[in-house]
Amino acid sequence: MIARLTYTFRETWASFARNVTLTVAAIITAAVSLLIFGLTLLMQRGFDNMLERWEGGVEMIINVQNTASPDARAEIERNLEQLKPSVVSDWTYCDVECSLTDADRVLAGSPSTRDLLNESNIPTQYKVVPADAADVERLRGLREAVEQMPDVASIVLAEDSLDVIAKLKGFVGLYTYIMSIALLFAAILLIWNTIRTAMFARRREIEVMKLVGATDWFIRVPFMLEGLIQGFIGGVAASVGLWLINNSWTSGVESFPEDTGFAALVVEGGYVSGVTLLIIAIGMVAGAVGSGIAASRFLDV
To answer: Which fold has domain 56-157?
Structure first.
């Protein structure tokens, strides 16, 4: 068993050494494609963070002082109920715990601001879903009426920003996905060509191995391992690049003004770790598939 493993790794390394140029090209192409794919996932996650507070049709958020009295809250709720169903379709109250959860997501790129918020000072929220027939002007009228009430800290009206964010998310996602898939396909072709070249260079050796009884799988495994390692190295390189870019973006966003909303585009570390593992796995699978097809197709040399 040890002898077989030693042979497999020795032959894999020998194949690497014979095809350095093609191998490096395949690894770079795989790394670039996987990096673009990983960045696409992070961008989509960032846009989701920006849109999540508005999910369910919410177009107005009323921020209320944490210390608001029950009477003040009851007055706000009474006004919202009176506007049903002509202006307001529905509304929900987001308590302190809910508001802190929203802050974790929206202020991920501004940890210094997030650290200032706690259970004693974070505003609670009323999330308002307008009626289908309600236009922006009626929502603005509702805002003007409600913001005069006691203990109302601020009112955020989505207006047209939701459409802009959603369209941008769709546009960026579509073209970056297409680009990453095209480059990954190119990487698979390069790996395929690398394995084909390696098998052609060793065609006489393969013939001899067959004559002495070597099975197809015994011959095929070192070449498949070569492709898998190429995909793995490409995935690791892409993961390192993704981590560096995300850290640079996170550090840069901290200096942006708070009202720009870019803090929500920062993606937390747990999701980034999941994406890095995913692109490494995709790289390994792509490398194994490309080399496996080539090894099977060109085994009879």
So the answer is: Alpha-Beta Plaits (3.30.70)
